[in-house]
Amino acid sequence: MSDEIAAEAAEDVADAAAEDAPPAPELRYGAIVTDSCGDTVLHASVDDYLDTVAAAHADGFDQLIDLTAVDYLTYAGRRTVPDGVEAGRFEVVTALINHQRRERIRIRVQLGADDPTIATVFDLYPGSEYLEREVYDMFGIVFTDHPDMTRVLMPEDWVGHPLRKDYAVGSIPVQFKAASNQR
Amino acid sequence: MTVTHETPELDSVPDGAERVKRRGDDSAVLRLSEAECAEIGNDPSTPADDERVLLNMGPSHPSTHGVLRLMLEMEGETVLRSKPVVGYLHTGMEKQAEQLTYLQGCTNVTRMDYSSPLFSELAFSLATEKLIGIEVPERATWIRMLMCELNRMSSHLLFMATNGMDLGAVSMMIYGWREREEVLRFFEKVTGLRMNHNYIRPGGVAADLPDGWQADVERLLEIIPPRLEEYDILMTGQPIWRERLQGVGAMNADEALALSATGPILRSTGYAWDLRRDEPYLAYPEVDFDVIVGSYGDCYDRYAIRLNEIRESMRIVEQILDKMPGGDYRVQDKKVTPPPRVRIDQSMEALIHHFKIFTEGFKVPEGETYASVESPRGELGVYIVSDGTSTPYRMHVRGPSFINVQTMPHLMQNGLIADGVAIISSVDPIMGEVDR
User: Fold this and answer.
1) Peptide bond into A25 cis (omega under 30)
2) For B343, which of A77, B319, B339, B377 could close a Cys bridge (C-beta 3.0–4.6 Å)?
3) Smallest Cβ distance to A62: which of B23, B257, B379?
């Protein structure tokens, strides 16, 4: 992450401390910008997600580096969502990189608990194909207009989405035929 | 192989990014489910064009590097569309990570990319340290760099071995394995294990380098270069080798970028992007090395890049030998570092502290962050969300192998099935990391 951005973010924090009234949130590609451990984070709404990604794409973010999701079901009192963004159960996190400026951004989108659906970025970044399939597989988040919205890691006929927080960490008891009952 | 290949004219390929975006029948990706494929395969009357056959390759196939399965749509010997089917090694490591403390986390991630385990540990540790906001001592940074560069060598040597074997240079398999074993022997001396080291941990490394490590590293630097020259004789200049790889599975930079490919695959297209140089971490700005790039983006370039990256890594290791600073090998921050063994016998507090760190782990402040390193396969990133407890709320790994597997159908389209084996090999996926 470039020092400039970190410095800018640090200034913002200082400004916020100096004035009592919270300053108007900084916007970039139509999304609220925050700083997380020196990373630039954009908070887009579901409806504006594709526009934000398209604007970033047009601005030279030439590669999609990562796309994942988080299920915030059991995380009460989350503080990493800025004012003006309504926290949802799911969050899709898209990381983009601009090779020329050596800059990275992360776009976080909040999704509700019921039928989480979001637009695919396949047409802008075809490399999102597997990552979006993985998110669908693990979280049940559907990417509309994705060319192949199927499971990628779990078996095709699997029921449930393992990385959801209400999916228990279980174990399948193994029965050993030869083992005697007396130990 | 008696089949000859002509290097495709890169200009004749339609705009790279557009080509990989296709969705329909002319796409390189066979977007059918396994069930549909099985049905079509069983029904002899289905294919309208009786020249087209759906063929299954793997998951157990000697050239698929473990358990990669490919569904191929073939016309004669030509591959039209294909779909890699992955997940046979899926062990739920990301779910597992939510149950393990940050100290235990390294034992988990190290099992992902089993041929370069230290990189996963490094990325995980860097992300954790970023969240806590600690800086590791200089010596720990340099030890990490030394171990990672040696690991890059061992990983690329393994590639040399498997790539040779896949293409019929079977003796190469033994040679590559032999050299890799020399590096692993050093790892065993330092970390106690040949693989899955759990050596790089949040806060530093697990132990200092053993006495006489310089001599061992010098020996490595002495024996490997002449053997790389043997590889050159056996493979690089060999007409059969060249015939088999040049112009096979070519890709341009636009396509590689669009498909999110990183590492040797991206660099083989002539796109010079290496995180060690472009987004430096550890102490890489203080050492000299070149970023190796190719020009045609074919299998041969990917092979040559890896061979020369071994040489660059040795250059870095040589400089580390001279510059290795003294000092502590882990941060003396009581929050993340257990007390030294002798203190435990002397002080009750130290004993409690030791017990607490290993049973409860240390708490990491709330936040979310992403840290990435240049692994032998590309950008290896770790995304951690912390809720302030001693286990990650969510840990996601951007496995370069997983994303690079996407390039396979595009590299294989309109090529021969025999070249498919060369392409799988040159993408160098480690299935442990693909499936996690």
Assistant:
1) no
2) B339
3) B257
- Whether B80 has a pLDDT exceeding 80, the answer reads yes
Structural domains in chain B (count): 1
Query: pLDDT for B114-141, tens place per residue?
Result: 889 999 999 999 999 999 988 899 999 9
Minimum mean pLDDT among B188-197, B307-316, B339-348, B380-389: which range?
B339-348
Residue B367 lies inside a defined structural domain of this protein:
yes
Q: What is the pLDDT of residue B75?
A: 83
Return the CATH number at B228: 1.10.645.10
Q: Is B53 on the interface with A (CB under 8 A)?
A: no
Q: Is residue A150 part of a domain?
A: no
Q: Is B432 within the bounds of a domain?
A: no
Distance in Å, alpha carbon of A168 to nearest chain B alpha carbon: 10
- From A182's Cα to the closest Cα of chain B, the distance in A is 32
Confidence of residue B398 (pLDDT cuts 50, 70, 90): very high
Does residue A104 belong to any structural domain of this protein?
yes
The domain that contains A9 carries what CATH number? 3.30.460.80
Q: Indicate the pairing of strand A63-71 with strand B204-205.
A: unpaired
Answer yes or no: do A128 and B131 touch at CB < 8 A: no
Tell me the per-residue pLDDT of A82-116, one tens digit each, with 9 for 90 and over.
777 888 889 999 999 999 888 999 999 998 888 89
Is there a domain that residue B71 lies in?
A: no
CA–CA separation, B317 and B323 (whole Å): 10
Confidence (pTM): 0.87
Residue A167 counted as domain residue: no
Which domain does A25 fall in, by range?
3-144
Nearest CB among B31, B94, B366 relative to A80 is that of B366
How far CA B98 is from CA of A55, A173, B105, B108, B336, in Å, comes to 34, 22, 9, 11, 19
CB contact residues (below 8 A), chain A span 97-116, against chain B: 99, 102, 104, 106
Which among A80, A129, A152 is the nearest to B368, CB-wise? A80
Domain count, chain A: 1
Question: Is B184 contained in some domain?
Answer: yes
Which residues in chain B have their CB less than 8 angstroms from residue A62's CB?
A: 257
- Torsion angles phi and psi, residue A27, rounded to 5: -115, 145
Indicate whether A106 belongs to any domain: yes
Containing domain of residue B176, as a range?
93-331+363-403
CB atoms A95 and B381 under 8 Å:
yes
Minimum CA–CA partner of A75 in chain B: B387
Query: With an 8 Å Cβ cutoff, is B367 touching chain A?
Result: yes
CB atoms within 10 A of CB B213: 17
Residue B102, C-beta contacts closer than 8 angstroms, at least 6 positions apart: B128, B202, B361, B362, B364, B390, B391, B392
DSSP-derived secondary structure for B49-86: STTEEEEEE-SS-TTSTTT-EEEEEEETTEEEEEEEE-
- φ, ψ at B383 (rounded to 5°): -110, 120
A125 chain-B contacts, CB cut-off 8 A: 258, 260
Tell me the per-residue pLDDT of A30-78, one tens digit each, with 9 for 90 and over. 788 888 888 889 988 888 899 999 999 988 898 999 999 999 888 877 7
